[in-house]
Structures are given as C-alpha cells and as structure tokens.
Amino acid sequence: MVYSQFNDTYDIKKIINAINKMKDRKYKIMEICGTHTTAIARFGIRSLLPSNVMLISGPGCPVCVTPMSRIDNIFEIAENKNVIIATYGDMVRVPGSMPNKSLEKLKAQGAKVEIVYSPIDAVYIAKENINKDVVFLAIGFETTVPGTALAISYAEEKGIKNFYVFSLHKTVEPVMRNLISEKDFDIDGFLCPGHVASVIGVKGFEFLSREYNIPSVICGFEAGDILVSIYMLLNLINNKESKTENEYIRCVNYEGNIKAQSIIKKYFEPRDDLWRGIGEIKNSGLKLKEEYFKYDAEKRFSIELSNKEKLTACRCGDVIKGKINPFECSLFEKECTPWNPIGPCMVSCEGTCAAYYKYMR
Length: 361
What we know:
CATH topology of one domain: Rossmann fold
Number of strands: 11
Radius of gyration: 21 Å
CATH class of one domain: Alpha Beta
Largest sheet: 5 strands, parallel
Strand order of the largest sheet: 2-1-7-8-9
Mean pLDDT: 93
Shape: globular
Structural class: alpha/beta
CATH superfamily of one domain: HypD, alpha/beta domain 2
Order of helices and strands: HEHHEHEHEHEHEHEHHEHEHEEHHH
Oligomer: single chain
Low-confidence stretches: 1-7
Helix content: 25-40%
Distance between the termini: 36 Å
C-alpha cells in the first residue's frame, strides 16, 4: 500500500511530516462528504497541513443540497392535519423560501412532526396511527437508500397502507460529473465518501480516473483515515497516476454491497433532480418505481416538483460547489447563525457553514 513506509500502520507524526515535505506545488483537494467536512474541521486537519495543500468542501451534505422548493413541498404536506411527518433530526430546522418557517416552527403551531433514527421507525409510527398518513422524509445519498427501501418492503409485508415516502434521495456520481464539467473546475483530486463506497464499491468511483484522469481516494472518517488518504492522494498527484485507491479497506470492497444495490434497484429508479445552488442534474435523483407508487408521497398529495431554484442572499450554493468558504459569505456569523439559520449549510450537522462556525472561528 502507499503508506507501507509507515510499517502498514498509521504513524500520524510520520504522515504529517511526509505531507509537509510536499511543498513544490499547490494542491486542491475536494471532499464530497459532509461527514468528512465536519471531521476535518473537528480534528483540526487543516492546521496540520502546509499552506499549499488546500482542502475544499464539495456538495456532500444531503440536507444542504436539497433545494428550497422541496423544503416548501415538505411544509405543504406537514400543514395537512391528517399527516405525521417522520424525519431525521437535521431536517426540522431547515428553512424554505419563506422566512421564519421550518418544521420545528410548524410543530410548535400544531403540526405532527416526529424525529426518527431509522426509516423503519416511521413504519412503526404508521402502524400505531392507522388514521393518519405518515410521510417519511427520505433523504441522503446511496448510503441511506437501502434503509428506505427496506422500510417500504416491511410496510408491504405487513400490509401497512398509511406509510408514504417523500424521496429526496440523490446519487453522488452525477453531481461529481457536473462539477468536473464546469469551466473553472481546478480540483487536483477527490477524497471520496467511505459510507457511499461501502454501498457502491470502489468501482463506483473509478469513472474519475477512467474518464477524467482525476485521482481519488476512498476515505474513512477518523483523523488517521483522513490524513493517510490525503497523503495517498498527494502521492498519486505527484506521480501523475490517475487511479482510484481505497484507504477504507476495513469497510469497502471493490464490488460494494450487492444486496444493498439490489434492493435499491428493486424500489427506485433514476430521475433528473434539482440541487440547491447547482440546478437540475440529469439522473441525479431517485424516485419510486411505478409499481410502488402507493407508497409515494408525491402521488398521494399531488406534489408538483419544481425544476428551478429560488434565489436568496444566502450563498449556500457557492459553498456547496466549493467556490467560496463560509467566511466569504456576508451573512455568516452575522444574520446567519445556528440559532437563526438562513440556509441549510448552517443547520445540518454535516453542513460546511455549521462546521466552520463550531470549529474554525
């Protein structure tokens, strides 16, 4: 392995020293993972690197890339008195296009909103509230889609007819292709999300090296994982090797999780989808297949999905694309704080603005 000179163990001091010797050029590395963004800030990774190694946060936070129009759709459903919204916790404070409106505030006004830790929890809520429609907000990249699919499978098995899914699921490859296609793209390499790779495998990221000659490393989430992955990526860049390497070998294999891939394909199919600050990307979202429309909240509540984004003073879109860091947004720390979030990047536990506010001020 690339780090064999460290006796196949993570000697962090040696890795940091090796990275700090690489001062011949500038390196721009992008992570496509909100968990990486938070870990890099929390562990103080940037402070351990030389100034010529730049870590740039990309569109890796599922909550952050959900457009305002979809959030407005959620509010529309939540305002129905016969509905219980089941959601992960980091969705409850996300604002839509209207100021001072969120699931948290709607709940205070009487809406039924339940925080769940698993999609199956939403099915249990539906089972216990047969006179209510329970809508699970299915958000996340490939990592969380199998859980949503399993929840639908369980509801089908038990004959639960009041459980619905509002699919906000997105996939990683299309947005990475979209970033690379931009005229001002100048990223030298990618740190790829280990949890997504655990589902789609190393092969799911090989398009980067095969089609674009961009090196990448699939990375775990501890400080050692991140530093080793950076070192591996810098070596690939220096040696002009366009490869996709796997640092996260304890959880990721080449093929990925075949069972997870299979259940995703059973219940979902790709669709064009809107990304906050980026726009519509072809085949980047996932919708329920026609044979499972009876579980589709879009069909149940006649939701019309917009393909256009609404503009605000919030620069979450530029942060998501790595065009600016949060300090360059005029709202950051002023109008926009964790207690008064203007955009989702300040709300989600994986948001870049939230990470910068908590760990890097």
